[in-house]
Input
Amino acid sequence: MQKTLVAALAASFAIGSAVAADPAAKPAVAPATAAKPAVPLDKNKVSTMVGMDIGRSLAQLKDDIDVKVMEQALEATMKGEKTALTQEEALQVRQEFMQQMQAKRVAEQKVAADKNKADGTKFLADNKAKPGVKTTASGLQYLVEKEGTGAKPKATDTVKVNYLGTKIDGEKFDSSYDRGQPATFPLNGVIKGWSEGLQLMTVGSKYKLFVPADLAYGENAPGPIGPNATLVFEVELLGIENPAEKPAAEAAAKPAAKAPAKPAAKAGDKK
Output
């Protein structure tokens, strides 16, 4: 908790520190003008701001703490007065509390993982019987919404796509459309369901992929998704981008041209 409070206080003054360190910031006065005395900020406003930051940082602990007791400890510590716990006792309480919170999170994760797994299994069983839905040997399901005429990417290729990712209840967790630009990433750097699904597609295609948890993030999914979640992606394959792999005909036509350096692979968070 002490670290949390410190972090909250640090966040409260982050803006001020950033402005002070910004070399592009305009000086308070012109170089040739005498500095004017600073007007002190209203203490109540500063206190409110700090309290708001601390409150936000402790929101997840609201059921585990007594705010009035916390205020007493905070005030006594700031004044250098004796607190209800010694430093050694506080360290012991912190360790036990962290262990308690960790156990609580593990239990909550297991409940969520079991529920998501059961929901995903039922969803895929029902979805499998829908018209047009195909299932691969791995358990990946897909629906062709539009078939393109271009090439198919290989597992080692870098692709350019637009996509929308949702959970099986329709809740959106990611979208290149919302960002206003397609995503580019190597197929060997994404989840198994994406790597397999994209290799089924030709450039210009649009598929809907139904990805079982074991082909997605499994139990280690990011917070917005949740453990053992089955995911649904609408994917448009816009192109295959491997700029360092020049066709032989192009290389022969320009023998004197210097081959472009292979650019660093763009980040492609596992979808």
Remarks:
- The longest strand covers residues 158-167.
- Residues 2-84 form one domain.
- Residues 87-128 form the longest helix (42 residues).
- The beta strands are 133-135, 141-146, 158-167, 172-175, 183-186, 206-211, 231-240.
